[in-house]
Design brief:
This protein has 8 helices and 12 strands. The mean pLDDT is 89. It is α/β, with parallel strands linked by helices. Helices cover 44% and strands 24% of the residues. β7 and β8 form a beta hairpin. The chain has a 5-stranded parallel sheet, with helices on both faces.
Length: 232
């Protein structure tokens, strides 16, 4: 069954939309009443489409959409708002939104938009996607993400799951910046202070594992994040 994430802080409208989409669209709808709750739900489950109210407490729909895009660049997103200003539409599409609907709207129109986006997404999914690499060369090290092992000169270092996930993200952006926020949301599912301190500990461990090769370095990029630099 197609799964939809619905983020709507108006409880009456949220219940109406959820009931209609489940009844008429035959969708499995998860209703969240604020942006933080919706982001947690997105990290827990896989969704086929998101409907995000722009004006929400704790985390507005545009911010939520931006964070969802960092986690999944393909899931269709519909922004819903009482605003009809052109600049809001520009923001919505600039953040990677696929559609924009202005309140008040007819639920029948929303269903038509959902079906159109799902059909478009289905046609994209039919194209074979390039798999994410799992084996990397980091200077004189070999990193196997699947087995979570770093190897150098026959010596192996077993990584924890979070260490392996963090190193993979750094490798995928080798010599480029991995933002702190992206890593926290992807691996820890929340970019709060305590998770940030935890990630700092894991980065220190990775630096220790890679210190034998002077051509490999994980550096802090002030105000942005981190960069895995491999000079040779």
């Amino acid at each position: 069954m197609t799964k939809i994430l619905l983020a709507e802080d108006d409880p009456n409208l949220g219940d109406i939309l959820k009931e209609y989409l489940e009844l008429k669209g035959k969708f499995d709808v998860t209703l969240c009443v604020d942006g933080d709750d919706a982001l947690r739900a997105f990290n827990r489950e896989s969704f086929d489409l998101c409907i995000l109210d722009v004006m929400m407490p704790k985390k507005d729909g545009f911010t939520l959409g931006k964070e969802i895009r960092k986690l999944n660049d393909g899931v269709p997103i519909i922004f819903a708002t009482a605003k009809g200003m052109m600049e809001d539409k520009s923001i919505a599409f600039g953040l990677g939104g696929d559609d924009y609907i202005t309140k008040p709207f007819r639920v029948e129109e929303l269903l038509l938009r959902i079906n159109a986006l799902l059909k478009r997404a289905s046609s994209k999914d039919s194209v074979t996607k390039e798999p994410v690499p799992t084996n990397f060369k980091i200077g004189s090290y070999a990193f196997d993400f699947t087995s979570q092992i770093i190897t150098r000169n026959g010596e192996q270092q077993k990584l924890s799951t979070k260490e392996a996930e963090l190193l993979q993200m750094l490798c995928l952006r080798k010599n480029d910046v991995l933002t702190r926020e992206e890593a926290l949301i992807k691996i820890w599912h929340d970019d709060n202070y305590f998770n940030g301190r935890s990630m700092d500990v894991f980065l220190s461990k990775l630096r220790k594992y890679l210190k034998a090769d002077p051509n490999v370095e994980i550096v802090n990029v002030h105000g942005k994040g981190y960069k895995l630099i491999v000079s040779q």
